[in-house]
Amino acid sequence: MRRRAVLAGIPAMLMADAAMAQPAGLDFRIIRAGSEVGRHSVRFREQAGVLEAVSDVRIEVKLMGFTVFRYRHETLEAWRGDRLQALESRLDKNGTRTECSARATGGAVLLRAAGGEARLPAQAAPMTWWRMATLRPGVPLIDPRKGEAVAPELRITPASGGSRVVVIGGEGADVLYDAAGTWVGFATTGEDGSAVRYERA
């Protein structure tokens, strides 16, 4: 995925004005059945008032030396302030590849995937976990793996000096953020029913 492809077409006025804070990169080990099976990293780059977030998830599960599950998901987001400007997602799951994209247009976000196009509210945002402000009531959510709008139930509570967001719907998720809003923990259920959790690398 190329940054130029995502940023192309964003109006010049959206690339200017006040710069936003650039968070540090994030790195997690993905743990299943007590063993590391992959990594999830997020890298950030701020340019002319637009924050780019590149997420890379790589998972490989082996059984008796043979790879039985392989997963690679790359997403590239461009944000200006609290509004998503562009999204590109590419998923390779056991050799089956899917893609989707989204772009701010007027007062909406246009989502494109294999199943067609959907016009979403301007506040729509992808569930890529690193951005705590995305997971709050009233924010229309996009599942970039499937390229579709989703509406899970969100339960938000204080936790260990920060916040905990429990996502109910689909495979579900338990997401932790520290007092500064930095993503620090994650747990979910794998397709085979196994417990999957993240540890900071």
Strand order of the largest sheet: 8-7-6-5-4-3-2-1-16-15-14-13-12
- The total tally of domains equals 1
Average per-residue pLDDT, rounded, comes to 90
Distance between the termini: 24 Å
3D shape: globular
Helix coverage percent: under 10%
Q: For the report, how would you describe the main beta sheet? A: 13 strands, antiparallel
Q: Spell the H/E element sequence.
A: HEEEEEEEEEEEEEEEE
Structural class: mainly beta
| Total DSSP helices | 1
Our estimate of the beta-strand percent is over 45%
Over all CA atoms, what is the radius of gyration? 17 Å
Low-confidence stretches: 1-22
Brief summary of the model shown:
By secondary structure, the protein is an all-beta fold. It is built from one helix and 16 strands. The N terminus is likely disordered.
Describe this structure in words.
InterPro entries: DUF6134. Keywords: Signal. Pfam families: DUF6134. This is SH3 domain-containing protein. Residues 1-21 form the signal peptide. The protein has 201 residues and is an all-beta fold. The protein has one domain. Helices cover 2% and strands 61% of the residues. The protein is built from one helix and 16 strands. The protein has one helix spanning 3-7, and strands at residues 26-32, 35-47, 50-63, 66-80, 83-93, 96-105, 108-113, 116-121, 125-126, 141-143, 148-150, 153-159, 162-168, 173-177, 183-189, 195-200. The strands form two sheets. It has a 13-stranded antiparallel beta sheet with strand order 8-7-6-5-4-3-2-1-16-15-14-13-12. It has a three-stranded mixed beta sheet with strand order 9-10-11, with no helix packed on it. A hairpin with a 2-residue loop joins β1 and β2. The longest helix has 5 residues, at 3-7. The chain is globular, with a radius of gyration of 17 Å. The two termini are 24 Å apart.
